[in-house]
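HUMAN: Mind sharing a backbone?

ASSISTANT:
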Amino acid sequence: MRRGGYGPEGGARDATVAAEAMDGRPRRRRTLREWRDWHRRRHHGLAKHLYVRIYLALLCCLLMMALAFMGVMRWTAGGSTATPRLEVLAEAAAGLLPPAGSTRQAQEQSLEHWHSRAGVDLALFSADGSMIAAAGLPQWAPAQARMQNSHWAGGHPPTVALKLPDGRWLSVRYP
């Protein structure tokens, strides 16, 4: 007893006879090439678009990594781990700038010198927030609510507000 064959016991032969009975036309036997083409069309539809699925999976992974990176950067940028480093930078900047009692022109020249060397926008503010000197594109004074210590001011382009030891504020914006 043979199962699933083309013999009189059943299988594909019975399906062909049943199909002939439905529309009245005799069915011819499929060739191997026709069978292969039908099988590929019927069973390999997902394989045709597998490259699209892989591409979309990669795009989703890249998007998730970018979002995770942005979240980590935002979470750590506001933390207190950067503040001691910024305080050291503020002390170094105070050593490079003229003292608070010097003329406005001397402070302006110093900022222009460092602006041309470093390629960043600089602005020097007094302890009350009024602008003393600037080099590069204009900047806003540091926010009054955050004027206790140096901080990342954020935004685009990124800005750092450094509180100098003499009470002045140096705002550095990366272009």
